[in-house]
């Protein structure tokens, strides 16, 4: 009888282990699939519309503090210095813009600061939206400038500089030799005198997920 009971308990124990392992593996696979799905949603490309969309998040710190950074990849050195934290690597964003036919300017160097030079490259119309807004609004609507000018976002390119500096810069608010895109309305270095920050009365609260849309204008 003892031997029979021992065999029964052993069978039951093995069964419990098998169910537990199967459940853990299923949970792990589900979590992995969920993570992959989230990553896939961070960057979408529509070649017919000549459009690139990236996911980002509001950084409420820059409702009041000034910054020259509009969107920066969260893991870059400037990831916490921008109005929006981006979830897309600069290189992936660069390649996405290339895939819709955008042409990089690659015309700025670090030594050009203060010389009045502006970023070149394909012009991009940039918009932003978030859950509940129900529409797209121009990116310029979320940015305060102490010297307001019509926003003129250009595909600066700068991939080699971006890789070397690892700042994570995706969209800079004045002309920049490192950012993948930047604002040609202001020359490189003008952010030393012109102040920028996010508009608290337009943007949703700190930590809100948003989508930034880049459309080729030319």
From TrEMBL:
InterPro entries noted in UniProt: YdjY-like (IPR047750)
Source species, domain of life: Bacteria
Residues spanning the signal sequence: 1-18
Compositionally biased spans, kind Polar residues: 25-34
Record flagged with keyword Lipoprotein: no
Compositionally biased residues, Basic and acidic residues: 35-46
Region feature Disordered, mapped onto this chain: 25-46
Keyword Signal: yes
Keyword field: Signal
NCBIfam families reported in the protein's UniProt record: ydjY_domain (NF040466)
Protein name as catalogued: YdjY domain-containing protein
Native organism: Clostridium aromativorans
